[in-house]
């Protein structure tokens, strides 16, 4: 059973987490490049937020947005 768990450890440490080790070493030379994945996720989230707000404005301008506080029976 010990060799099974050592095999899992070897899989993660020697293969699957090698990109993380590379990014950790890269941070010592260039912080911006090491965090490129974070910047990509930030840009995706900003784009999704802009799209969501534009859609909210479209529904609001068409008066399709229900703004009644008693929209749910438990709020009456």
TrEMBL record:
Domain of life per record: Bacteria
Keyword annotations: Glycosyltransferase, Membrane, Transferase, Transmembrane, Transmembrane helix
Transmembrane segments annotated in the record for this chain: 31-53
Cited InterPro entries: DUF6341
GO MF annotation, one: glycosyltransferase activity
Keyword Transferase among UniProt keywords: yes
A Pfam family this chain is assigned to: DUF6341
Protein name as it appears in the record: Uracil phosphoribosyltransferase
Organism expressing this protein natively: Flavobacterium fragile
């Amino acid at each position: 059973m010990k060799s099974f768990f050592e095999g899992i450890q070897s899989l993660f440490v020697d293969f699957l987490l090698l990109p993380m080790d590379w990014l950790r070493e890269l941070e010592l030379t260039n912080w911006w490049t090491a965090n490129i994945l974070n910047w990509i996720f930030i840009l995706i989230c900003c784009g999704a937020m802009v799209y969501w707000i534009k859609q909210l404005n479209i529904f609001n301008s068409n008066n399709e947005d229900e703004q009644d506080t008693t929209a749910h029976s438990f709020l009456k």
